[in-house]
Design goal:
Layout (H helix, E strand, L loop, with lengths): L12 H10 L5 E5 L2 E5 L4 H17 L3 E4 L3 E4 L5 E3 L3 E5 L9 E2 L6 E5 L6 H15 L4 E6 L4 E9 L4 E9 L3 E4 L5 E4 L9
Parallel strand pairs: 4-7, 8-9
Antiparallel strand pairs: 1-2, 3-6, 4-5, 6-8, 9-10, 10-11, 12-13
Length: about 190
């Protein structure tokens, strides 16, 4: 039998939102697993990857928008706050929402790894659990450290993440399953790593 240690939050969600609203634009704060986290400032390659993905998705699905910087209420009972690198949702879905929107309607969230010490914990472990618990159909991780693309699908509240995880190397074709239904040729991603 596995015994889980009780997790104590650093602060309340309201306290986090107050801190996040006062943070300068050069800092992106998130609140996952009861802990405040700082996302590294993106570099040119990071931004280029998000732009590349936006073009691919918009060409295949003109009914969608790719949002950058949209905060989402995630985790069990929506007690976490994440700012994915991109969120794919129906056109104008987040119009009128504040800084932290409900994830309902988000079809896919995207993270592109940064070259910082928190990437492993944040992007590879905490975020798949938080996004899956929130019922977001797809989580796409573009991992510049391992030169891989990982597609998480079939969110499962009980598992605390996603039931299906497919990883492909840069250069391979990757299918983004329902509700996206598009294929990505990831060859160009080889150009955007250190």
């Amino acid at each position: 039998m596995t015994v889980m240690a009780e997790h104590t939050s650093q602060m309340s969600v309201d306290e986090f939102e107050t801190i996040a609203s006062a943070a300068p634009e050069t800092v992106t704060l998130e609140f996952i697993n009861g802990r405040i986290g700082v996302k590294a400032v993106t570099d040119g390659d990071h931004s280029t990857i998000v732009s590349w993905l936006a073009r691919r998705c918009m060409q295949a699905r003109a009914d969608l928008d790719l949002y950058q910087g949209q905060g989402l209420r995630v985790e069990a009972y929506r007690e976490g706050r994440a700012k994915p690198d991109a969120v794919l949702a129906p056109e104008a879905h987040f119009a009128g929402h504040g800084e932290w929107a409900e994830p309902d309607g988000a079809l896919m969230v995207v993270e592109v790894t940064s070259y910082d010490s928190d990437t492993d914990r944040r992007d590879r472990h905490e975020k798949p659990a938080a996004y899956g618990q929130s019922g977001i159909p797809l989580y796409l991780l573009i991992d510049r450290d391992s030169c891989t693309v990982t597609v998480h699908s079939s969110p499962d509240w009980q598992v605390g993440g996603y039931r299906h995880v497919l990883t492909a190397k840069f250069g391979e074709k990757v299918l983004l399953p329902h509700p996206m239904g598009i294929e990505l040729d990831t060859e160009i991603l080889k150009n955007y790593v250190r």
